Amino acid sequence: MKIVALAGSIVGSKTKTAISKVVDMLHEKYPEHEVTLLDLADYNMAFSDGRNYFEYEGDTKYVAETIMAADALIIGTPTFQASIPATLKNIFDLLPVNAFRDKTVSTIVTAGTSKHYLMVEQQLKPILAYMKAHIVPTYVFLEEKDFLRKEIINDDVLFRLQRLVEDTVMVADAFAEIRAKKDAEYGF
Q1: pLDDT, average across residues 73-83
Q2: Superkingdom of the source (predicted)?
Q3: How many structural domains are present in the chain?
Q4: Which CATH number does the domain housing residue 30 bear?
Q5: Domain range holding 87?
Q6: Could you give the angle at which helices 86-94 and 58-69 cross, rounded to 10 degrees?
């Protein structure tokens, strides 16, 4: 299985810290899976201009094609102005409407305050549903108080991240099995 862990911002450290922890957990628990970390801070992304994702060049093409080739995604995003950052929205705009069809997607959200916990329910999940994702229902929300010196210090958060990793792989496996049974019905 190909799993992409996406750090959806080019600034700050909390989202990258959380998504890096998830990548470590994936490598430890599921070494048989191919895990790719895409930290948008490491890439020079073009703004979406309506072209097909495979018509872009350089970093933009690489990031879009890597996401499209994934079986599962774990998206990490900070909360900016009670919304997702423009860098993450640009990723969604670069991809086709059905980009997440047959893909399992889970989310990790960081914010400075607990007041932004509904952003994922009101903004991110509707976008993922529109793009046909199999959304893992639970998500992990981290606040400023969960970090110290670019480390997660809340054991409950670490437990929830581990559970999110397990749920993501389990849901992706379940949908792959369902797809295989459905494809077998056709007999060709």
Answers
A1: 95
A2: Bacteria
A3: 1
A4: 3.40.50.360
A5: 2-184
A6: 70
